[in-house]
Amino acid sequence: MIKKSDIVSTVRMLQEEHLDVRTVTMGINLVECACRDIRATAAAVEKKLKLKAGNLVRICNDLSAQYGLPVVNKRLAVSPASLLLEGHNRSGALLLAKAMDRAAAEVGVDLIGGYTALVQKGMTPGEKVLIESLPEVMAQTGRVCASVNVATTKAGMNVDAIRMMGTTILHMARATKSKHGFGAAKLVVFANIPEDNPFMAGAFLGSGEPEYVINVGVSGPGVVKRSIDRLIKTRPDCSLGEIAEEVKHTAFRVTRSGELMGREVAARLGIPFGVVDLSLAPTPRVGDSVGEIYMAMGISKLGAPGTTAAVALLNDAVKKGGAFASSSVGGMSGAFIPVMEDHALARAVEEGTLTIEKLEAMTAVCSVGLDMILLPGDTAPETICGLIMDEAAIGMINRKTTGVRVIPVPGRKVGDRVDFGGLFGSGTVTNVNCPDGAAVFVNRGGHIPAPIQSLGN
Amino acid sequence: MNRYVVSVLVADRVGILRDVTSAVTDMGANIDGFSQTVVAGYFTVILTTSFHEPRSPESIRENILRNFGPDEAAVVVQPYAADAVGRIPVKGARYIVTVTGVDKPGILKTITGYFADKGINVEDWFVEFDGGNVRHIGEVSVPKLLDIKQVQEEFQHLLSAMDMDSFIQHENIFKATNEIGAIGAILSGGR
Q1: Which residue of A29, A176, A319, A379 sits 20 to 30 Å from the alpha carbon of A235, by its own alpha carbon?
Q2: Does the pLDDT at position B189 exceed 80?
Q3: CB contact under 8 A, B167 and A65
Q4: How confident is the model at residue A1 (pLDDT cuts 50, 70, 90)?
Q5: Which region, left, alpha or beta, applies to residue B160 given φ > 0 means left and ψ of -120 to 50 means alpha?
Q6: For residues A172 and B99, what is the distance between their CA atoms, to the nearest angstrom?
Q7: Cβ neighbours of A260 in B, within 8 Å
Q8: Residues of chain A positioned with their CB less than 8 A from the CB of B173
């Protein structure tokens, strides 16, 4: 029989510490759906999604009951939609996005990612159409998520594309003004976008991926936080090394539960299993916060000096535990810091201890970037471009993924509160220091060359 | 081969296993199945043992009892039924059952009554007490034809009426989170 202590600790993780599988994301390649007639393309896309993903939610729910392990979100990630938009216009793009939206609703998933363009080195007409269509698409669909990759370590940074994104993000927010600019919350601008990321809004199916695949995103901030609490309760003077060790062991168990679920879902669907994304993904719920983990370590005010080191400790320990747990890890794999989706981070921003600049420093050592941050509605496009360029630079130089998901809330000023509800959470509009100081630099446009791969300091 | 199944119940003390095993081994037997546990200070062991020559169950029992004081141990010996393993009543997926709450009379009767009605076989069960609280942990085999979601809901409903929290979860989630073998091996039932 399995050891009783092991049973008790697993039950505690599941029942008391909010362990869940944050997302089971099915990747589907749509390239075969391309036709000269965009209506035929959209119809083929809708048909394929319904046919192939029709059983995803039921299977996830069955396995969730069997294991007592909740699968919070069931989602789809498709090959870049821009590939289907070559030779078409914005109205065709909207037609395609609506077909994706209908199919997602039909199969019961909450979000579908892959309304994506990869433009780090240049832009095709189809990619341009996709970016230009984003305001309309986000205003007229409910489940479609978008991502645009503007930089890679190999290709450098496409500043012309970033300039386009700065304006587009503002237009997306204005197009969804009645929802406080929520449309912008469904777009991530990336550097080094992962091709197997199961988390939204940035999930898409990369060109190196199989025709169909199951990728899983685990969760577990509550489990990690409680494990640190227990360690400190028994050993109040424990060192940071001991905390790292505790996190590593906990990450092992969290990762294993995700892989178990992912492999079972894939087997029942008869498709390959891809990866477990080790990322600690918070929710707005108290007890399911990454910020609370840093506080448990001893950072009493998030944003204080030492916070970046706490992020680094957590991120590295999670990776080490996860990498030992599974040989199939990928995606972003680290700690997320989505401000609105994490009540502790959101409160620190509201109280002013955690600023955008400190968040940016934290993104140098965590798995993503400036995520779910509310900006004033009158933020200049050049300011948003500057934020994207800074984040892209961190990713490009450090050979890691970074992203920007900011929401310039129409009509709102610094200090105003906005609530998106559900997993998207709530937060306070925050300010960017010296917002108009880089316009000339940004507007030069062009391309920042790929970084040197030697002289690594 | 002449095989017997032996069960011994005795108040726990040092040396019980030596007294039992030496009694059968000295008769020329090989012990080929064994499980023991201690509950609230009482020791119990069940073992199977094989002899080259036929022995009467009574002679084995008497030989064991010689190592104990008068009325100290209760010993049962009977011939091993060749089809015992084949008669395992349920073939199905294995689930772990946990039930927690304030201890009260009737919990085990309720649990085992429900499982028996459903044809669910209890393979192992453990109960631990912490003050007035109790935790039951069990391993059961659920017939394939049963809808596990329905079983879980009925079981929770039944136990919640006794103010007990209860869960039935497939054993693989416990293996996955506590063992280091590949997940693929766990799913295929191997190592």
Answers
A1: A319
A2: no
A3: no
A4: low
A5: alpha
A6: 51
A7: 172-173, 176, 183, 186-187
A8: 10, 14, 67-69, 257, 260
**pLDDT (tens digit, 9 = 90+) per residue, A246-260?**
999 999 999 999 999
Asked if the Cβ–Cβ distance from A69 to B178 is below 8 Å, we say no
**pLDDT tens digits, one per residue of A4-20:** 889 988 988 888 787 88
Nearest to B147 by CA among B105, B103, B78, B95: B95
Q: What are the structure tokens assigned to A140, written together?
A: 């007229």
Task: Compute the distance between CA of residue A340 and CA of residue A180 in angstroms, rounded to an integer.
Answer: 13
DSSP code of residue A179: G
d(CA A229, CA A245): 14
Helix axes A221-234, A290-297, angle to 10 degrees: 10
CB pairs under 8 A between A and B: 76
State the Cα–Cα distance between residues A224 and A239, nearest whole angstrom.
Answer: 16
Q: Is the ipTM of this complex over 0.90?
A: no
Judging by beta carbons within 10 Å of its beta carbon (0-12, 13-18, 19+), is residue B98 exposed, middle or buried? buried
pTM of the predicted structure, to 2 decimals:
0.89
- Using CA atoms, how far residue A120 sits from A1, A199, A332, in Å, is 54, 21, 19
Between positions 144 and 183 of B, the ones with CB within 8 A of A are: 148-149, 152, 165, 167-178, 182-183
**Cross-chain CB nearest to B173 (options A3, A68, A267):** A68
Of A182, A95, A93, whose CA–CA distance to A134 is shortest? Answer: A93
Question: How would DSSP label each residue in B123-188?
Answer: EEEEEEEETTEEEEEEEEEEETTS-HHHHHHHHHHHHHTTT-EEEEEEHHHHHHHH--S-HHHHHT
Q: Where are the beta strands (DSSP E) in A153-285?
A: 156-158, 187-191, 212-218, 273-277
Distance in Å from the first CA to the final CA of chain B:
31
d(CA A259, CA B69): 55
DSSP secondary-structure letter at A181? Answer: T
- Percentage of chain A surpassing pLDDT 90? 86
How far is B154 from B148, CA to CA, in rounded Å?
10
Contact between B31 and B64 under an 8 Å Cβ cutoff? The reply is no
According to DSSP, the residues that pair with A329 across neighbouring strands are A276
Domain A23-191 carries which CATH code? 3.20.70.20
Alpha-carbon span A250 to A157, nearest angstrom: 37
A366 closest CA partner among A290, A445, A417: A290
pLDDT tens across A400-424, in order? 999 999 999 999 999 999 999 888 8
